Recover the amino acids of this structure.
C-alpha cells in the first residue's frame, strides 16, 4: 500500500505560499464560520456542564432550526432564484421573523428531547453510556423523520441578503455576511454569558452544575434548571441555524447537522467543555484552523483538519484551553 | 426467560453441544431449505442471509469492544473499511499493487486492521466514556474521508472485480459465501468464547464494571483495553474483507457513520456483552429490513426510536450480559451447590455507577 502512495503526489498538497496568500481571507472567513461553531458549541457546553452528558442529538436540534428558517422564508413568500429587492428595514424584519421562528422550533425540539428521551433515564438513574446511546437513537430518529418529510436532497436556496463587500482588511474582502455572523456570535454569546452568570436562573444552572444534590437542598428546582438549560441551548442552536443559512442558503438538508455538530463539539472541547467563554474561543479557533488547513492542504482536507484537531486536543489537553468550569466558582 | 436460562445453565457441556450442533447445521443449510415464511421476497434469499451473517460477524467483533470491555466505539466501521480496502488493493485489477490470491488477503486484512487498532487505541484509550466515543467517531470519519481524498484509494470510482482469481470470483453463488461466513462465525465464536473465559476475558469484565477498581486490583487496564480494541478491529477487518470479496466492488460509499451506528444498534439491541444476544441483534438489524421491504425506508427511523425505548425500559438489551463465574468456577459451583450458577443481568449498561445528574 505504501509503495503506491509514495509515488502519487497529487492528492495532498503542502501549499505554504497559498496559505500566505490566502491568510487574511481565511481569517475573515474562519471567524464567520467559527461564530456558527461557537453558537452551536454553547448548547453542547451548557448541557455538558449541567448533566455531564454529550447531547449527541444537539446537531439535529440545529438542523431542525435550519428547516424552520427555510420554511419561514417560504411561507413569507420568498422562493429560490434571484434575491428580492428589499429595503434594509424589510430585510432586518424578515430575518428577525425567521430567527425567532428557528429559535422557537429548535428550543422546542431541545426541550421535547429532554422530556421524551433523557428525563425517563434520569428518573431511572441510568449510567452515562445509556444516555449517550439514547442520544444517538434520538439523533437518528430526528434525522430520519426530516428525511421522510423533506426527502434526500437539500432544499432550494432562498437568499434574502446578497453578500456585498463592505471593506477590506489587509487585502481581504469583508462582506456584510461576515460582519453579521461575527457580531451575532459575540452578541448572543454575551447574552448567554450574562444569563448564566448574572441572573437568578443562571445561578441555578451553575449551582446544579456544581452539585445537583446540594443545589436541590438549597431550593433550586433541578428539573426546571435542566429544562432551561436545554431550552437555552436549543434557542442558540436555532439562531445559529438562521445565521448559517445566511451564509450557506442551501444548508437545509436532513443530514446537514452531523458534520457541524461534531465540529461544534470539537470547538466546545477545544475551549474547555462546560465553559461558555471556552465555547466562543474554541469556535473561533476551530474556524480559523480549519480555513488555514484548507489553504494549506487543499479544500477536500478541511473536514479532516477538524477531526485531527479533536483527536489531538482530547489526547493532550482533554480539559481544553480554558478548562472545564461551568460549575466552578468563577470570576 | 430466566427459567430457560437457568435450565440452559444447568445442562452439562455435552448436552449444550447436543443442542447447539444441530442448530448450527440447520443455520448452515438455511439457504437450501428456503423456508417459506423466513425467506425474503424482495432480495435473493442466500444474498440476504450472507448480509445477515456479515452483520453477525461485525456484531461479534464490536461486542468484544463494547460489550466485553465496555468501551463505546462509534467508529467501528473504520476497521471494517480498512479490511475491505485491503482486500480490494491486493486483488482488484484496478489497483497497482502486486496481486495475491483472495484468501490470503483475509489474514492480511486482519493483521493490518490490528495495526490500525493499535494506532487508534494507543493514544485514545487513555480517555474514558463519552470522550472515547467521540474520538472513535472522529477516527471512523477520518478513515472515510481518507478513502474520499487519497487518490490511490479511488474515491467513488472504487475498485472493480475485488476478490477475483484469474478473472473469476472465488465462489460463484451467494450460498457458498454464506456458508463460509457461518463457518468463520463459529470459529470466531469459539475463539472469543475461550478468550472470555481466560484471564483476558476476566480483565475485560473488570474494566467494564469498574476501571478504577480493576486498576487497583492489579489489572493492567490499559493493556487489556488495547487488546480488546485490537481483537475487535481484527474481526471487523475480516468482516470487511469478506464483504469486499462477496460484493466484488469497493468504493467509499458504504462506510459512513450511519453504518457504524447500525453496527452499534445491533450490539446494543441484542444485549452488549452477550454473544447470543448480539447475534440476535445482528439478525434483527440486518434481516428485518430485508424481509419486510416495505419498512426498509423507515429502518433507520425505527432503529433510532427502538434505541431510545430500549434504553429507557431495558438498557441491557434483549438478552443482557450475564455476570457469571468464568472458567473452572462453573464445575466448582456445580459440585458445591448441585445446580447451575446464579446469574445476574447486571452489566456496565445497567449497573448504577457513573450516573448522570
Amino acid at each position: 500500500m505504501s509503495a503506491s502512495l509514495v509515488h502519487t503526489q497529487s492528492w495532498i498538497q503542502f501549499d505554504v505560499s497559498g496559505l500566505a496568500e490566502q491568510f487574511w481571507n481565511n481569517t475573515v472567513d474562519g471567524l464567520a464560520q467559527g461564530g456558527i461553531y461557537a453558537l452551536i458549541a454553547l448548547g453542547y457546553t451548557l448541557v455538558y456542564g449541567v448533566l455531564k452528558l454529550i447531547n449527541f442529538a444537539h446537531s439535529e436540534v440545529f438542523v431542525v432550526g435550519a428547516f424552520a428558517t427555510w420554511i419561514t422564508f417560504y411561507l413569507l413568500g420568498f422562493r429560490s432564484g434571484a434575491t428580492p429587492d428589499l429595503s434594509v428595514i424589510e430585510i432586518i424584519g424578515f430575518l428577525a421573523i425567521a430567527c425567532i421562528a428557528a429559535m422557537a422550533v429548535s428550543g422546542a425540539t431541545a426541550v421535547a428531547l429532554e422530556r421524551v428521551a433523557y428525563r425517563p433515564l434520569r428518573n431511572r438513574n441510568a449510567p452515562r453510556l445509556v444516555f449517550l446511546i439514547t442520544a444517538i437513537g434520538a439523533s437518528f430518529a430526528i434525522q430520519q423523520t426530516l428525511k421522510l418529510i423533506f426527502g434526500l436532497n437539500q432544499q432550494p436556496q432562498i437568499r434574502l441578503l446578497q453578500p456585498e463587500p463592505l471593506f477590506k482588511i489587509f487585502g481581504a474582502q469583508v462582506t456584510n455576511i461576515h460582519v453579521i455572523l461575527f457580531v451575532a456570535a459575540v452578541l448572543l454569546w454575551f447574552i448567554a454569558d450574562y444569563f448564566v452568570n448574572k441572573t437568578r436562573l443562571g445561578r441555578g444552572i451553575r449551582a446544579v452544575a456544581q452539585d445537583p444534590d446540594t443545589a436541590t437542598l438549597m431550593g433550586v428546582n433541578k428539573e426546571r434548571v435542566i429544562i432551561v438549560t436545554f431550552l437555552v441551548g436549543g434557542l442558540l442552536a436555532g439562531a445559529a441555524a438562521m445565521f448559517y443559512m445566511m451564509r450557506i442558503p442551501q444548508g437545509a438538508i436532513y443530514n446537514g447537522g452531523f458534520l457541524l455538530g461534531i465540529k461544534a463539539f470539537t470547538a466546545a472541547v477545544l475551549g474547555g467543555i462546560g465553559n461558555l467563554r471556552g465555547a466562543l474561543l474554541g469556535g473561533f479557533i476551530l474556524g480559523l484552523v480549519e480555513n488555514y488547513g484548507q489553504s494549506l492542504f487543499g479544500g477536500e482536507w478541511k473536514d479532516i483538519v477538524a477531526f485531527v484537531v479533536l483527536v489531538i486536543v482530547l489526547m493532550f489537553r482533554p480539559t481544553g484551553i480554558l478548562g472545564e468550569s461551568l460549575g466552578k466558582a468563577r470570576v | 426467560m430466566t427459567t430457560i436460562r437457568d435450565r440452559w445453565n444447568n445442562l452439562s457441556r455435552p448436552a449444550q453441544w447436543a443442542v447447539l450442533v444441530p442448530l448450527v447445521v440447520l443455520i448452515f443449510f438455511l439457504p437450501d431449505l428456503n423456508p417459506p415464511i423466513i425467506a425474503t421476497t424482495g432480495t435473493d434469499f442466500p444474498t440476504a442471509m450472507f448480509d445477515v451473517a456479515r452483520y453477525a460477524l461485525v456484531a461479534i467483533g464490536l461486542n468484544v469492544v463494547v460489550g466485553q470491555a465496555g468501551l463505546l466505539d462509534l467508529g467501528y466501521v473504520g476497521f471494517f473499511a480498512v479490511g475491505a480496502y485491503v482486500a480490494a488493493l491486493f486483488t482488484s485489477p484496478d489497483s497497482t499493487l502486486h496481486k495475491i490470491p483472495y484468501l490470503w488477503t483475509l489474514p492480511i486484512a486482519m493483521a493490518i486492521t490490528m495495526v490500525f487498532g493499535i494506532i487508534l487505541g494507543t493514544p485514545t484509550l487513555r480517555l474514558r466514556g463519552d470522550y472515547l466515543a467521540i474520538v472513535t467517531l472522529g477516527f471512523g470519519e477520518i478513515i472515510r474521508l481518507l478513502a474520499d481524498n487519497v487518490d490511490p484509494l479511488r474515491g467513488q470510482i472504487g475498485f472493480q472485480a475485488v476478490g477475483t482469481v484469474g478473472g473469476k470470483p472465488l465462489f460463484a453463488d451467494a450460498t457458498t459465501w454464506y456458508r463460509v461466513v457461518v463457518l468463520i462465525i463459529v470459529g470466531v465464536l469459539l475463539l472469543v468464547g475461550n478468550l472470555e473465559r481466560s484471564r483476558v476475558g476476566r480483565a475485560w469484565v473488570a474494566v467494564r464494571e469498574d476501571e478504577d477498581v480493576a486498576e487497583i486490583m492489579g489489572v493492567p487496564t490499559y493493556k487489556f483495553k488495547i487488546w480488546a480494541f485490537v481483537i475487535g478491529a481484527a474481526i471487523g477487518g475480516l468482516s470487511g474483507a469478506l464483504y469486499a470479496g462477496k460484493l466484488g466492488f469497493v468504493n467509499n460509499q458504504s462506510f459512513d457513520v450511519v453504518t457504524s451506528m447500525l453496527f452499534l444498534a445491533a450490539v446494543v439491541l441484542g444485549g452488549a456483552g452477550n454473544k447470543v444476544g448480539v447475534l440476535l441483534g445482528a439478525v434483527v438489524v440486518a434481516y428485518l429490513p430485508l424481509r419486510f421491504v416495505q419498512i426498509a425506508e423507515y429502518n433507520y427511523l425505527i432503529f433510532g426510536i427502538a434505541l431510545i425505548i430500549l434504553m429507557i425500559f431495558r438498557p441491557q438489551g434483549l438478552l443482557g450480559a450475564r455476570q457469571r463465574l468464568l472458567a473452572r468456577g462453573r464445575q466448582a459451583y456445580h459440585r458445591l451447590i448441585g445446580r447451575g450458577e446464579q446469574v445476574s443481568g447486571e452489566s456496565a449498561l445497567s449497573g448504577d455507577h457513573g450516573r448522570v445528574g
